[in-house]
């Protein structure tokens, strides 16, 4: 499959260098012992994830715990994040956190990595592991997205 025309060769080209550096700094602020290189890798994977969600609105996708940390950093830059989602198709990719690590479902991550690969991007295998894999970093966020709460650009769900 050819990558969509609106997706650049490198995911970090979806935002400016200044925006990327700011998001990388946000990841580092939440994880004081993290290297700049690792934080950059995490933001890069989060950009891939948001693009995959935006371009596949009918496919439930989810990030790994580590990639979710980068997604949080993108979301905290609200104006930039809204512009990013708009540039990727116009629908905001919402975040509905889940806090139960037993929600881990490998097929969701497999499907997400497949959608990223369809853009011609290679998912960073070290950053797409199971939630218990904290050998690389100990992420600040405790989110783990449930199989029934996969990420799609969609209206806010009804809360009980």
Give me the secondary-structure topology:
Elements: H1 17-30, H2 36-55, H3 65-76, H4 78-87, H5 106-117
Beta-strand share of residues: under 5%
Helix residue percentage: 40-55%
How many independent structural domains? 1
Name the shape in a single word.
globular
Main sheet: strands, sense, barrel: none
Mean pLDDT metric:
82
Order of helices and strands: HHHHH
Class based on secondary structure composition and strand pairing: mainly alpha
**Helix count, DSSP H or I runs of 4 or more residues:** 5
Strand elements, count: 0
Stretches where pLDDT falls below 50 for ≥5 residues?
Answer: 152-157
| Radius of gyration, whole Å | 14 Å
User: Could you tell me how far the N terminus lies from the C terminus, measured between alpha carbons in angstroms?
Assistant: 41 Å
Structure description:
With 160 residues, this protein is mainly α. It has one domain (11-149). 42% of the residues lie in helices and 0% in strands. It is built from five helices and no strands. The chain has helices at 17-30, 36-55, 65-76, 78-87, 106-117. The longest helix is centred in the first third of the chain and has 20 residues, at 36-55. The protein starts with 16 loop residues before the first helix and ends in a 43-residue tail after the last helix. Mean pLDDT is 82; it is low at 152-157.
